[in-house]
Amino acid sequence: SGGGGSSVVSSGKTGSSGGFSGVSTPTAAEKHFGDISGSEWFADYVGLLYKKGFVKGDENGNFRPADAISRAEFAVMTFRLAGLDENAAACSFADASPEDWFAPYVGALTADGIVSGTDDGRFLPRESIKRRDAAVMLCRALGLQAAENGSFDGEEIADYARGAVCALAEKGIISGDENGLFRPNAPITRAEAAVMVAKALAL
């Protein structure tokens, strides 16, 4: 869900991402989230993002790692990664109002050229974000140049996203699943999103 009360993405202010030290030390995510034991492949990444104010628990203190993350929630994580000013610009999409919890962050990302809407002026904030679109957002936020390196050559990846996917693969931010596939049209889970953003912070 994308609502403020149930969001696992923090909408409070947070400091800079400078000094990020990778994932070499455990961050005890299990102390902050009731549904993380600490042994999961994503636990340290989630713990680091919690410490930096990027994510929080839902109303029950859970992270819900297997749930798909919405476009609004991923946009807010990207906003924090980019270190933008939440007062930079109003959110002008037809399906968002100024009162929406995500509006200032999406407005700032739009003004910075990191996100764009559909042809009919919508952002679709409550829809699950596709893996290809998450890659585009992160690539733009990091200021990376689109790349052509043969990553995931066997998959049909939309032209607008292929360069971003290749660039993130080159930097080690994304990798294939157990079959070596990126699955560009599939939704991205909260756990996968946390790992991508944490790895991006380490650049």
Question: What labels describe this entry?
Answer:
203 residues, disordered N terminus, single chain
TL;DR?
By secondary structure, the protein is mainly α. Helices cover 33% and strands 0% of the residues.
Q: What does this entry look like structurally?
A:
- Helix 1 packs across helix 6 (190-201), helix 2 packs across helix 3 and helix 2 (71-82) packs parallel to helix 6.
- The protein has six helices and no strands.
- It is globular, with a radius of gyration of 16 Å.
- It has 203 residues and is mostly helical.
Helix and strand arrangement:
Layout: H1 43-51, H2 71-82, H3 103-111, H4 131-142, H5 159-170, H6 190-201
Helix and strand run = HHHHHH
Distance between the termini: 29 Å
The class by helix and strand makeup works out as mainly alpha
| Helical content class | 25-40%
Low-confidence residue ranges: 1-6, 13-26
Q: What is the overall number of helices?
A: 6
Largest sheet, described in full? none
Shape by Cα distribution: globular
> What is the tally of beta strands?
0
Beta-strand content estimate? under 5%
Radius of gyration: 16 Å
Mean pLDDT: 87
